């Protein structure tokens, strides 16, 4: 039975402090008491209307002193946050009111837009406006000695970070298309003295704030970097096998890591500490993704399952696939996600449906056997991209119901897209 590894309640653990080989828990008064055991939630075809409530504590920040904040009641805090939010909305409405007389209509649309965005239901159609790229629109950046395995772009779209089997990390400038910084890899024999990776880098992620860059390698090591200076801030070594996937929860510094040791770990980069471990997959966890809710979605390779981890509730949704090994996963929005497999099958799922709502067999064409290496979505839009070993990227349009239709096919040699 899949279960969560838990002490008493959800705790944050500092890796440096250990007593007789066990982690010493740091108190965290903001955590709620947890159930002693996680539940596998069996989904019906129709699903349910269950939603995780949003955390109002993240909406605003008070300008009062710390002592005043400590004395305010929960009701006073909600009132203060609401006033701050309305003041911000009114300021934005005042700026737009000059060009439109219907101020009440503007306010209503603004509130509806924010509510849908917070729930992950804000949807922007962009696929029909995407033009097929020409060969001159594609730029090739050379710098690594071996195959690239992962790539991310900074939230401000100014820099690209790449990881490779040569154990190096390179920071690129988007405008100049040149290397800004290179952290060279080291040999395995220099693992104790080398500042960086000494084995293949397999995964990479950057926080939505742009404050942290993380990389995971074949030696089960996770390195936290300062994306600006490329200095190492911290190294985590909790996994027992290769780190195959990394994902930040949006608008936070909560990090999820997936590994070939069949586990998913949660880390707090604000405290630079380990939080908890969850189990459930029966094979290597090959990919993981997250958005704003305290959830993560992962795929377990040959166990043919997708799991949505509800961290706060200590439960998980389990989805069974009938295709081949599930190698990649990506959230489209808070309600839908897409998976790719080594059987060249692309599937779109809804959180409250136990079966895929859309399946495309033979999604990529090639001279030989094809499999899907990677999938990425432009969040909260109808645009999706998938990459294959056949050397091409396909762009897809995702309908509201989850149906997929191919838009363009771009021929390049790749194993990851961003």
Description:
The chain is mainly beta and 418 residues long. The chain has 3 helices and 28 strands. It has helices spanning 66-71, 74-96, 103-118; strands at 4-5, 12-19, 22-26, 39-41, 148-153, 159-164, 169-173, 179-183, 201-206, 213-217, 222-225, 232-236, 243-248, 254-259, 263-268, 273-279, 287-289, 295-299, 305-310, 315-320, 326-331, 336-341, 346-350, 358-360, 372-377, 383-388, 392-398, 404-411. The longest helix has 23 residues, at 74-96. The strands form 7 sheets. The protein has a 5-stranded antiparallel beta sheet, with no helix packed on it. A hairpin with a 5-residue loop joins strand 5 (148-153) and strand 6 (159-164). Helix 2 packs across helix 3.
What percentage of amino acids are in beta strands? 35-45%
End-to-end CA span: 35 Å
Q: Which shape, going by the Cα principal axes?
A: globular
Class computed from helices, strands and strand pairing: mainly beta
Measured as a percent range, the helix fraction is 10-25%
Q: What's the arrangement of strands in the largest beta sheet? A: 1-16-15-14-13
Profile the largest sheet.
5 strands, antiparallel
The Rg value, from CA coordinates, equals 22 Å
Helical stretch tally: 3
Uncertain residue ranges: 1-39, 44-65
Number of beta-strand segments: 28
Output mean pLDDT. 81
């Amino acid at each position: 039975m899949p279960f969560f590894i838990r002490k008493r309640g959800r705790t944050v653990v500092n890796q440096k402090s250990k007593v007789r080989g066990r982690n010493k828990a740091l108190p965290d008064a903001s955590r709620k008491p947890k159930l002693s055991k996680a539940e596998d939630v069996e989904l019906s075809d129709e699903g349910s209307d269950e939603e995780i409530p949003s955390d109002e504590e993240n909406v605003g920040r008070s300008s009062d002193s710390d002592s005043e904040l400590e004395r305010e009641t929960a009701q006073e805090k909600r009132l203060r946050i609401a006033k701050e939010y309305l003041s911000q909305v009114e300021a934005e409405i005042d700026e737009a009111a000059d060009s439109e007389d219907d101020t009440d209509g503007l306010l209503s649309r603004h509130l509806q837009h924010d509510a849908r965005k917070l729930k992950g239901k804000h949807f922007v159609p962009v696929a029909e406006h995407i033009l097929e790229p020409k060969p001159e629109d594609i730029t090739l950046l050379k710098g690594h000695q071996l195959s690239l395995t992962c790539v991310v772009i900074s939230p401000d779209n100014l820099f690209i970070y790449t990881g490779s089997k040569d154990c190096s990390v390179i920071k690129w400038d988007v405008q100049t298309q040149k290397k800004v910084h290179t952290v060279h890899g080291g040999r395995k024999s220099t693992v104790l003295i080398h500042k960086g990776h000494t084995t293949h880098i397999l995964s990479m992620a950057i926080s939505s704030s742009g404050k942290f860059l993380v990389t995971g390698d074949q030696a089960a090591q996770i390195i936290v970097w300062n994306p600006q200076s490329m200095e190492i801030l911290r190294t985590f070594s909790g996994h027992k096998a290769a780190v195959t996937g990394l994902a930040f929860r949006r608008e936070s510094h909560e990090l999820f890591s997936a590994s070939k040791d069949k586990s998913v770990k949660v880390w707090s980069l604000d405290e630079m500490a380990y939080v908890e471990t969850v189990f459930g997959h029966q094979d290597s966890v090959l990919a993981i993704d997250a958005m704003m809710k305290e959830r993560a979605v992962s795929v377990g390779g040959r166990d043919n399952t997708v799991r949505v981890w509800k961290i706060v509730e200590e439960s998980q949704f389990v989805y069974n696939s009938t295709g081949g090994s599930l190698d990649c996963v990506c959230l489209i929005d808070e309600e839908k996600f897409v998976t790719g497999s080594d059987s060249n099958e692309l599937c779109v799922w809804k959180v409250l449906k136990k079966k895929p709502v859309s399946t495309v067999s033979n999604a990529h064409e090639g001279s030989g056997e094809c499999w899907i290496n990677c999938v990425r979505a432009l969040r909260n839009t109808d645009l999706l991209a998938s990459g294959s070993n056949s050397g091409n990227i396909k762009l897809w349009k995702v309908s509201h119901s989850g149906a997929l239709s191919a838009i363009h096919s771009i021929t390049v040699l790749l194993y990851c897209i961003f």
